[in-house]
Amino acid sequence: MAHPRIDTTFPSGGEQCAAYVYRPEDQQGDAPCVVMGHGFSATRDDRMPEYAERFAAAGMVVVVFDYRYFGASTGEPRQLLDIGKQHEDWEAAIAFARRLDGVDPARIALWGSSFSGGHAQALAIRHGATGPSAIACVIAQAPYVDGLAALKEIPPVNLAKATAAGLADQAAALLGRPPKMMPVVGDPGSFALLTAAEAKPGFEAIAPPHSRWRNEVCARIALRIALYRPGAKAQDIPCPILYCVCDDDHTTPPGPAIAAAEKAPYGELIRYPMGHFEIYVGDGFERSSADQVAFLRRHLGLGEPTSGEATEAAAPA
């Protein structure tokens, strides 16, 4: 069953971030809200609506957004992946969610996948354990945890090319020139940031025909991946966090995520015998979405589902 959804925007850093807002059917009173941001270069239409539908069916409001410079959001240059600005967009999305009618501002959950699984960890730490800004719980799916580990999945020749491209792009930015782009995904042996066998078919599987995803990104991000290690402070995550880890992941290595789950004071870990992109579709999606709904119910005060809700949540997307 499709749930009510509005297409809207919220401001962030002088730009407008495009967002979908999903609501449960026949909502009565204030509900918890799940804020969802996608991973490396992906957009709000790339399999996020399927998860949002499951969460709405379980009684949650859901905010799904595009970062500035990506998808339906505004901002130039296009395809600029700036970690700090993406954190600002998350903050703006959380504030937007808390202001929505029918949302309990004390029950905000974060859902991040792949690169944004790292963002969700960082934001949970920033918001602290208590007070009006605290996050109730977090889901980190196939999460980016440690940039140094992620770089090991990139062939050395591509790492050298990406570094050169990143330096050229950074120089262009300083001189006010158009950005230098590099491919996000490519076939094994080609030049792109992600060339594992799972990468190109994986992105193609999660991007629907109407997706605004583009297979390019401003190359300067290649200079910053190694320095971004959100899982290094997993011991400081102050709320329940569910790590959904893919054991055959060659995009965001599973080892650091497993270690982060063990360090997080309220960490929970579920491992899946599949690759990075398999968790978004088919049986991987059915299993992960059911596990995530159960986790959110426990930590957002929704209790056990009724028989009707359980049937709807189990229905194929």
From TrEMBL:
It comes from the Bacteria. The keyword Hydrolase applies. It comes from Paraconexibacter algicola. One of its GO terms (molecular function) is carboxylic ester hydrolase activity. Keywords: Hydrolase. This is Alpha/beta hydrolase. Residues 16-149 form the Xaa-Pro dipeptidyl-peptidase-like domain. Pfam families: Peptidase_S15 (PF02129). PANTHER family: DIENELACTONE HYDROLASE DOMAIN-CONTAINING PROTEIN-RELATED, POLYKETIDE TRANSFERASE AF380. Belongs to the AB hydrolase superfamily.
